């Protein structure tokens, strides 16, 4: 059974940093794409970053490029999202997700396993 459990969210002032973690069980990082998504109140869920398991390349949304860094630790079965220079518009529930049918980053609809989410709130 695939399970994903996020942690690390919280309240931070603008300009601050947080690191989110996603503990994954039930599958191998080498086999599937893993992504970080977020959903702000009243907005659609958007993909923040993802790993292409084929070559371990990482893709980022334009809104977070240069500020967020996604990484993985296979030994710990954990993926991370280091978030720096946070802005109030980064406030959202953050989710990690797996696309069990593809090596490649894909749209949200293809991700079929999701964590419960962790709240990130950035105050101005």
Describe this structure in words.
This protein has 124 residues and is mainly beta. Helix content is 0%, strand content 51%. It has strands at residues 3-7, 10-13, 18-25, 33-39, 46-52, 57-60, 68-73, 78-83, 92-99, 113-114, 118-123. Strands 2, 4, 5, 6, 9, 10 and 11 form a seven-stranded mixed β-sheet that branches. A hairpin with a 4-residue loop joins strand 7 and strand 8 (78-83). It is globular. The relative contact order is 0.32.
Blueprint of the fold:
Elements: E1 3-7, E2 10-13, E3 18-25, E4 33-39, E5 46-52, E6 57-60, E7 68-73, E8 78-83, E9 92-99, E10 113-114, E11 118-123
Parallel strand pairs: 2-11
Antiparallel strand pairs: 1-3, 3-8, 4-5, 4-9, 5-6, 7-8, 9-10, 9-11
Please summarize the sheet with the most strands: 7 strands, mixed
Q: Which descriptor suits the 3D outline?
A: globular
Overall helicity: under 10%
Beta-strand proportion? over 45%
């Amino acid at each position: 059974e695939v399970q994903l459990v996020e942690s690390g969210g919280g309240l931070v002032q603008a300009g601050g940093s947080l690191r989110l973690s996603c503990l994954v069980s039930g599958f191998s990082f080498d086999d599937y794409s893993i992504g970080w998504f977020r959903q702000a109140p009243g907005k659609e869920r958007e993909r923040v970053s993802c790993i292409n398991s084929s070559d371990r390349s990482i893709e980022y949304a334009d809104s977070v490029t240069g500020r967020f860094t996604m990484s993985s630790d296979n030994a710990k079965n954990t993926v991370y999202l280091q978030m720096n220079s946070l802005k109030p518009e980064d406030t959202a529930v953050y989710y990690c997700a797996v696309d069990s049918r593809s090596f490649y980053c894909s749209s949200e609809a293809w991700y079929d396993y999701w964590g419960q989410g962790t709240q990130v709130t950035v105050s101005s």
